[in-house]
Amino acid sequence: MNPIDTESMLETAIKFHGHQCPGLAMGLRVSQVALRELGKPARDEEMVAIVENSSCGVDAIQVLTGCTFGKGNLIFRDFGKYVYTFMNRENQRALKISIKKEAVLPDKHHLDLFAKVKVGTATPAEAEEFKRLHVEKSNALLVLPEDELLIIEEITPEPLPMAHIHESVCCDKCGEPVMETRIRLLGGAPHCIPCFEELMK
Q1: Phi and psi for 76 in degrees, rounded to 5?
Q2: Which domains, and CATH codes, for the chain?
Q3: Which residue, 118, 152, 171, 187, could crosslink 192 as a Cys pair with Cβ 3.0–4.6 Å?
Q4: Where on the phi/psi map is residue 126: left (φ > 0), alpha (ψ -120 to 50), or beta?
Q5: Residues of 140-149 as b/e, b for ≥16 C-beta within 10 angstroms?
Q6: Distant-in-sequence, close-in-space partners of 137: CB < 8 Å, separation ≥ 6
Q7: Strands (DSSP E) found in 77-200
């Protein structure tokens, strides 16, 4: 792993995400493997990422690999797992990358500080200590040997359709345009999901 590349990628990821943290570091390391093994960042939909959590690391994956929600080549599966699958549509290669459990062992002190910071009860000293630990843990993940951090498997790519552009239909209740594939019919009239669920209560 080239330390210069890592430093540059970390700077890019922090600029996009807003801060340095362990989750961002994991996303960076995963992205490095995907790019090394499958090719350069996607300009369009050449590469697809399937992520199984919505944590900080996904921001690193989006900005570093070019797999984004907006382009439709970032697929979110809400399993709450540190598992990431990448597929190169051009050469039909795919990788499944997961974080080893030893790399994400909980640190009670760090978690306790995080809880205080989150609800605004941390003292200035505790908040500063939390920031320091956050960066320290992130830096440790950035230099951890790859075989101690990641499980990398080459897999058979699953068939994934290209992103589609759908027409919009106006909700009969709120009047807001909705992607046609997300419309719910009630009495024959189209409704967005929030309005449909409200009317069905």
Answers
A1: -100, 120
A2: 3-155 (3.30.1330.130), 168-199 (3.30.60)
A3: 171
A4: alpha
A5: ebbebeeeeb
A6: 21, 22, 25, 107, 110
A7: 83-88, 93-99, 150-155, 168-170, 177-179, 184-186, 189-191
In the block, which residue shows the tokens 């690391």?
Answer: 57
**DSSP per residue over 82-103, as a string?**
SEEEEEETTTTEEEEEEE-GGG
Q: What is the pLDDT along the chain (201 residues), one digit of tens a residue?
A: 555 589 999 999 999 999 999 999 999 999 999 999 999 899 888 999 999 999 999 999 999 999 999 999 999 999 999 999 999 998 899 999 999 998 888 889 999 999 999 999 999 999 999 999 999 999 999 999 999 999 999 999 887 777 777 899 999 999 999 999 999 999 999 999 999 999 998
Residues in the chain: 201
Residues forming a β-bridge with 88? 47, 93
